[in-house]
Amino acid sequence: MIETTNDSLAAFDSDEAKWAAVSNRDASADDAFVYAVRTTGVYCRPTCPSRRPRRENAEFHADAAAAERAGYRPCRRCHPQEGSLAQRNAERIARACRLIEAAEDLPSLDELAQAAGLSRFHFHRVFKSVTGLTPKAYAIACRADRVRQTMTQRETVTEAVYEAGFNSSGRFYAGADRMLGMTPKRYRAGGQGAEIRFALAECSLGALLVAASDKGICAISLGDDPEALLRELEDRFPTASLTPGDTAFDEWVATVAGFVEAPKGSLALPLDVRGTAFQRRVWHALTEIPIGTTLSYAELAARIGSPRAVRAVARACATNTLALAVPCHRVVRSDGALSGYRWGVERKRTLLEREAALADAAVPEKIRE
Question: C or N terminus of the chain, fewer CB within 10 Å?
Answer without folding.
Answer: C
